[in-house]
Amino acid sequence: MMLLKSLASLCILAAVAFAVPAQEKRIHHHVDLSDHIHDDAHGFQYDHEAFLGKEEAKTFDQLTPEESKNRLAKIVDRIDTNKDSYVSHAELHHWIKHRQRRYIEENVNKHWNDYDKNQDGKIGWEEYKNTTYGYYLDEEFDDIEDKATYKSMLNRDERRFKAADRDSDGIATREEFTAFLHPEEFDYMKDVVVQETMEDIDKNGDGKINLDEYIGDMYTPEKGESEPDWVQTERKQFSEFRDANKDGYLDASEVAHWILPGEVDHADNEAKHLIHETDTDKDGRLTLSELLDKMDYIKTSTITDYGDFGFDAIFAN
Questions:
Q1: What do you get for the CA distance between the two ends of the chain, in Å?
Q2: What is the rounded CA–CA span in Å between residue 183 and residue 169?
């Protein structure tokens, strides 16, 4: 039962990416650097999590100022791969991308042993299906209130698993299982991301998304409530930008353009931002003393939803 509930949560997460404002929740930017809005006027949580990684940021916040400085020195030494005592843009960009990849790896590792029951280093569809749905398969989902939903989840999981299984042998390698859990990270899975998004929003099943369905996916009005300004903005976004052919609907290609908005490199942008904010001598690179002088950009109080993985994980790879 726990695995089934976890799967339900996973499906929802996969559909909406991570926690972001309602009007942006369908857009896939690959793994987010942070759950916080990037707005320095309201704090530096975004930079904090982008630099440290989501998992480690919470543990870092518990350290004393002296411990924080010592830890930061060790991190800077790791980022400085050529050991010239400076952190370049390229080194910082590489580090932030590394932190993104580590989140995905940790998430896959967390699920791997649950499904690889025979410990052969691969996960077959039958292993996944029986582990996740086994009890309910025997009962034909009879004791579940929303039977149709869980049957639909099973069918959707099977379709996604088959798409991730590039050699069609019914068995997922670690790479293929990563594509199954994080389809937005793989080019060959983009059609699946678009298809699942279409199915989620297209309530009348006509294969396209009208304005009411588009708004309804992100906003449900309360009785007597006037429509917020951001919803009015989204109506304009739909008609002026999302609906490229102006037929009043979003088709699959228009949805793809909306939720998979090209190759924006957020790690690169964040590296440039951190250098701009902390590079006091404006030489285009950072020293440990510059980072220590701007500790607010690296260490600030924050609460994450990803659990306390432990700061020492930073040094694992």
A1: 34
A2: 19
What does R_g of the chain's alpha carbons equal in angstroms?
22
Cα(157)–Cα(48) distance, integer angstroms: 35
Structure tokens at 83: 């050991």
Q: What is the 3-state secondary structure of the chain?
A: CHHHHHHHHHHHHHHHCCCCCHHHCCCCCCCCCCCCCCCHHHCCHHHHHHHHCHHHHHHHHCCCHHHHHHHHHHHHHHHCCCCCCCECHHHHHHHHHHHHHHHHHHHHHHHHHHHCCCCCCCEEHHHHHHHHHHHHHHHCCCCCCCHHHHHHHHHHHHHHHHHHCCCCCCEECHHHHHHHHCHHHCHHHHHHHHHHHHHHHCCCCCCCEEHHHHHHCCCCCCCCCCCCHHHHHHHHHHHHHHCCCCCCEECHHHHHHHHCCCCCCHHHHHHHHHHHHHCCCCCCCECHHHHHHCHHHHCCCCCCCCCCCCHHHHHCC
- 87 with 79: CB under 8 angstroms? yes
Are the C-beta atoms of 112 and 128 separated by less than 8 Å? no
Q: How many whole angstroms from its chain centre is CA 128?
A: 22
pLDDT in tens, 89-104: 999 889 888 877 888 8
Q: Quote the tokens at residue 130.
A: 């029986």
Per-position b or e across 213-248, b if 16+ CB within 10 A of its CB: bbbebbeeeeeeeeeeeeeeebeeebeeebbeeeee
- Min mean pLDDT across 14-18, 130-134, 214-218, 266-270 is at 14-18
pTM (2 decimals)?
A: 0.63
